[in-house]
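ARCHIVE CARD
Drawer: 12
Card no.: 0347
Subject: one protein chain, sequence and derived structure
Cross-reference: see card 0346
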Amino acid sequence: MRGKEIRKAFLAYFAEKGHEIVPSSSLVPADDPTLLFTNAGMVQFKRVFLGEEERSYRRAASCQKCMRAGGKHNDLENVGYTARHHTFFEMLGNFSFGDYFKAEAIEYAWEFLTRRLGLPRDRLYVTVFREDNEAAELWHKIAHLPAERIVRLGEKDNFWAMGDTGPCGPCSEIIYDQGPELGCGRPDCGPGCDCDRFLEVWNLVFMQYERDETGTLKPLPRPSIDTGMGLERITAVMQGVPSNYDTDLFAEIMSHIAELSGKDYREGGEITVAFRVIADHLRASVFLIADGVVPSNEGRGYVLRRIIRRAQRFGRILGFTEPFLFRLVPSVVQEYGDFYPELPRAEQAAQKILEIEEGRFLETLSRGLEILEEELRKLSARGERYIPGEIIFRLYDTYGFPQDIVRDVALSRGFEPDLAGFERLLAEARARSRESWKGALSRIPEVLKRLSEDLSETPFVGYETL
């Protein structure tokens, strides 16, 4: 089953169940200055959950564009090295605003996974909050799960909160057993283990309490449901592949990278890592640009710039010495353009913006790598394997050379970077810098038009919360 077919089946199923199918909101939150990017399906419904906004519907479903790079939720440095981490991803979700609650949420999730997708029941487990007897009983009653496949976990794993105060509640995760060959082999290996065997595919949040300033939990007058299932993860499960990057969602992009580079994704080692980084970061860049974000030295624009630069760094591993990301844009549009119409509209602008940004950074990258190599030679000559934070910060401050690239180079050469020292120096610089992104609104059409016509260079002045 193809990824786009799973997306379509999910939305069709919940439409049958009376849900309003709501289009994805922008990656730039429209009215939430606390968020750098939209990072979950519930973001566009936050005011509804808080009782501050009424909609014409009380149950909804969506496939939401999400970004987790920068700020509190930051997966950037893990991308490429694991099977599951992404900066951009799609989140399938169904929501109830005081309409249905636990029983229906559990029934819908179980029916969709086992009947619509046909996942084998004997490979599915669930976790529940240790004190949520109601959820455990419902899983037994509705899904006929035996007690040994209903795992009770603590607050850290199975209790969700919107913030320090406000709506919160227990959650229940649906786990797919990928088989012992992907496990750690420990006798106590099971759902909740950090190994790859037990994969969380769907999280059901039962929003039933409100926490006040004293930490006291009070029952909400209208308990609600917020669920999230990563499209990339469930597609990997359905297609029986070891990583999200092996799914058809990335096939077109991977094929195009291979065509341009002459390399094989299946080669392994740093080649495979480079393919993954480029594919993920390209996808994120195109979606961000389509939502009005452009490379800059501040806030969201700097996150985009950092993503582009990291992709270029890994492009060198595949032999790219000239701008190349802009040539890959059509592969993203081809895979996603039918569901996200903003992508075809922004295709030419994305190509032009990426080409200009890549050209600028090639000079920075070459100069920065020369300086870093010289510093590594000096350290090696002294028998040292520790890169001081001052060196990392100087590269960042003087040349705009990202610390994650220093980290990648250092680790690949057996050096340990002083990232804590770098962060300390960065914090001092940040304290001297103006606030950049909080409260900023995206002016998408004007930004795309202006930047695609004339992307003028700006000096490096920003220190971000990255």
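Annotation on reverse: The radius of gyration is 23 Å. The chain has a mean pLDDT of 89.
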